[in-house]
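Why this split exists: single-chain examples teach little about how molecules sit against one another. For that reason, every record in the complexes split bundles all components of an assembly together and asks for one structure covering all of them. Below is a record exactly as it appears in the raw files.
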Amino acid sequence: MVQLQADTNALSDLGYKIIAVSVDPPAKLAESAQKWGVQFSLLADTQLQLAHAYGVAYKPVDKGGLPVPAVFVGDADRVSQFEYVHPSYRTLLGRDVLLAAARELLN
Amino acid sequence: MLKIDAIKDAFDYPDEYLVDRDLVHRIAFDKACQRGLSLEPINAQDLVHDLKDVCRFGVDRLDRSLALMEQMVIIGLPGLTAFYDAVAEEHALGKPYIIYTGDDVDLVAEFKAMMQRRSSTGPEGTPNSVSNDVRDYLAMRLLRQIGDELEGFLQLPKRERLEGRWFLRALTLKALELARPDLDEADREEMVAAPVKLDGPSHHVSKLADVAGSVLRKLPEDRELDLLFDILRKMDLHDEYDGTLLSQAQDLRDDGELDWSNNQRGLINDLRRLVPEGAHAKSSDPAGLRARLNRFDYLQRHSSDQEELLSLLAGILIRIDRDDSYEDVLERIADVGEPALDDLRQLAKTDEREVHRLGIRDGALRVLQSLKDRRERVASTPVAVDTPRSTKEIGRHTMRRISMVVVLLVGHMTQAGAELPQDLPVSPEAVQPRLIGSKALAGVLADATGEDFDLGAALDTGPTVLVFCRAHW
């Protein structure tokens, strides 16, 4: 989250709109937005509808569901041109990789 | 990408600015300020990088260092490990920046104090203190770093090893200072001195490698992870105790269901550390102690029955009645709660004629009384903030915290009863993401204000970065 916030300006300068999705409810998102000074859209996917549609949701037996960490970079035609999906939330997409991909896709 | 490179790229500086990092920082931060941008540290690596700079250049060292270190403690595990990684590296290589104390500022001690302030445990030296764990972790981490440096050194070509033997000597001395505090300086110097009767530096190198290796081989495998877990567990006054720190502890234990209220492993680790070397020699019942200790060590390797482990530990600790720290130990036995009761009650019935075991009997009676007092305090207290530590309520886990954990879990994942899609995979490895080339999907979700957000409309405005997060932001 903090990393994404740090990249907001660079991505916005490139013309990207940033949308972050989590299972947190709106109230929690508002709290986070205030806490971190978030400047992009935060969406509440409390029932994992969107994460499921993107194929990145899972649900361990007897537990709630979660998305795996995932980033989809789409072009102006809505076509996904770059993706990062990892099963471990410990392994996040490197900032330089995201920025490099975002730049490359505009060329 | 290093931060310095990011700065250079962001401001399109020529390469020659890289010659002087401090100059680059100054200009870059000024420019960033003018443009309303921020290049403040945002992760542990940035923080430790800036901390090293502050310490190296020495300007306003204390205040600026403390501010950065506070941030490192706030972010929890990554901050702690990054700090101690840097400290260990400086220590092993003999480059004191963060660990420099020549100006009477001890940043390593300050860092430990920051963690102590976020813990309700007692000060260093008292049983269960978080500072004890921090101290032990630091010592372990320093030794591990020395081991890594030693390994690297021994892989050098022979000529370089011989030329660098004084570095090896310094490393070995540091290892001895940490691992063998029982030796005095003269003994340690003798252990690293060049062999008298043998000519040539290669014998000296061999001797040093042997000495260092003998110390470093004894490092237990998972000790650092256990200590890090305990440090997180004991920072119960940390603002993110039930959020970030819990999540990091789950990560360390690779147990997504772990919460502070049901984990007894930390308590078991704490109590096991109270058992001294050669404990049977400090007991009026050496046979009884040894039998329980053997059983405990076996079970710890082969069973996850935490109640039996706690019961055995209580039985072990109550029997070290000839140890100087017995008074403190008795207080900790009460933390075990119910699993300790059977053995304690049995010991309380010890016959007066068994004179040699009366010390243990008295100890058992005192612990039983302490447990009784705790129960009575709870019974007379309308708010459950001082719950006794029983089988299921260990350590400092109050009802308040248990309820906070519930809130946290809601924040981290969907509620178990939420109406989720029926065909979700059960493991993160089994997800099947949409492929590159697929059309992005539209839909309507609530945003942070609770208003509907039309994803389709947003996607139509231009290129998009869509990020799915695990949450609890």
